[in-house]
Amino acid sequence: MAPRTLFDKIWDSHVVETLPDSTAILYIDRHLVHEVTSPQAFEGLRLSGRRLRHPDATIAVVDHNVPTSDRTLPIEEADSRNQIETLERNVREFGVPYFPLLSARQGIVHVVGPEQGISLPGMTIVCGDSHTSTHGALGALAFGIGTSEVEHVMATQTILQKPAKNMKVVVEGQVGPGVTAKDIMLAIIGHIGTAGGTGHVIEFAGSAIRELDMAGRMTLCNMSIEAGARAGLVAPDETTFEYVRGRPFAPKGEAFDEAVAYWKTLASDEGAHYDRVVELRAEDITPVLTWGTSPETVIPVTGNVPDPAAEPDPSRRRQMQRMLDYMGLEAGQKIAGTPVDVVFIGSCTNSRIEDLRAAASIAAGRRVAPGVRAMIVPGSGIVKAQAEEEGLDKVFLEAGFEWREAGCSMCLGMNPDRLTPGQRCASTSNRNFEGRQGPGGRTHLLSPAMAAAAAVTGTLTDVRELI
Amino acid sequence: MDKFTVLTAIAAALPEENIDTDKIIPARFLKTTKRSGLGVHAFDGMRYRPDGSENPDFVLNQEPYRKAEILITYDNLGCGSSREHAPWALLDFGIRCVIAPSFADIFNNNCFKNGILPIALPREVCTQLMDDARQGANSRLTVDLARQVIIRPDGKEVPFDVDPLRKQLLLEGLDDIGQTLQHEKAITTFEERRAQAQPWIPHIVLD
Ligand code: SF4
Description:
The structure holds two protein chains of two kinds. By secondary structure, chain A is α/β, with parallel strands linked by helices.
């Protein structure tokens, strides 16, 4: 057999049938469901009298709409409450396993899946959410789907897909101090652009990637979608196996060993073909952040905001100017030192225990700058409990951060955590689109350590000055 | 799903790149549990001023483009989230066909699944069609899916590519699930084979 990539192997092992035009009926191992993109799918099943084929391959959780304040209080926003109650009715009717709001296991769907051992290497995983790519960090083929596809998976446990192209992003070398997985990923997106991965599945490789822990790999794969890719992948290795071992829904004992033996066969073969290869040197990557309203507007924290006048293409020039106006920035200004109003540490990109530790290491012994609202939103109840066991909550609270309940929170303006117009936010989330964190809000994407640095200095700051 | 065969309709030009799904339908409108009724919020941020009044400069607020059924943009239309609310909002507004040099993958898929035809054409061609779309009452294009051509107001034809399976489903107005369930035997066989080969794959059962 010709040498195959990790993607090819997972793909091949899940094709049920190939239709005449090369569309595959692809078998799905895990279907993650949340309250925003599922109601119309359940409604569709009900209307057509169809059943859910595999409730035991499905897990539901509430995350997008939930308040991150006191959970024992009723949910104030009527339409949020309605979506949550609709999900609860649906999971009961269709028999779907569900972590309710008051469960310790509740959290952001992309934090919960890996954490519970529900997402495993070699699997195909889908969810009605673009950041499903996160689970690719385990060496699983994971992608976001639309609500019609959610319904399709519910009814058939398959989706219709054409094979993606293979892309490899190689990062060799060792990153410098203060440079995290988030910086690596933002640097990659800055390099290839938000359409750079269109039609491809990106496999991340190279020594700098191998060095990353699972949380870091999840950060990378999470933002593959911001690079335009269908999914991101990291080949499963010892780091992966150790992460998976002992998770509640992972195989146990002999079954685990059998699984590992299989997972070890998944790595891309020597000489496998990639349609596109991009290489970066880890040493060239510095702490970075975004200045504009597209994730590709990445600059080093030591850099200056670009000048649209230097852009030859008129439509791009106009777009840059519009971003500057929206963001309230001047062409050419130094980005460091720009005052922030809000700091948000959370989201499926950066809300795992490792992220909170990184932020706490900067926050420890310092104070949030006057006038800055700084929020820590753990990715799940389990992350929150772990952080409290390690005393991180105290570090944050003493420094003047808010310590909140798990959910998507200020990653998107869908729950009570929102920016007000004109507010500038240093955010560890993945999207800086206009209005994403609330109408008129201004988002700078950066790493948890950089976000913590912004909180304690009150400005966008090079975290290396605080290490 | 409504069939898509031949569409003759007003086309509107929105000459921008990277129109993301938050622009098509901002996240705060995703709280619905229904598919319909999102049309009034389509392009909310561009279409309405902060006080809620219509922005007269926005093309879809102008005649005859309020009745546009074809939308032409530049690269990477529909980037951003996977929300199907984006095509639902377009469809509810009345859009049945989107034309751009490129589309974000998930958005492209979601369009087909909701009876909207996305057509990818080179940027120069999109620019020409945008010129057609600026002719007010004469901004009608005809999209003939069976023949895979767009007929411009001057009668010239622009051919386009479309995936044959997708085309068939659109022409027949067929739902994907019904089609896949015709292969149910193969799915069951696959499941049995896999349960033997990889018996360690856990079931998710809560106690
Ligand atoms: S944290 Fe943000 S990106 Fe992640 S699932 Fe929630 S809303 Fe989507």
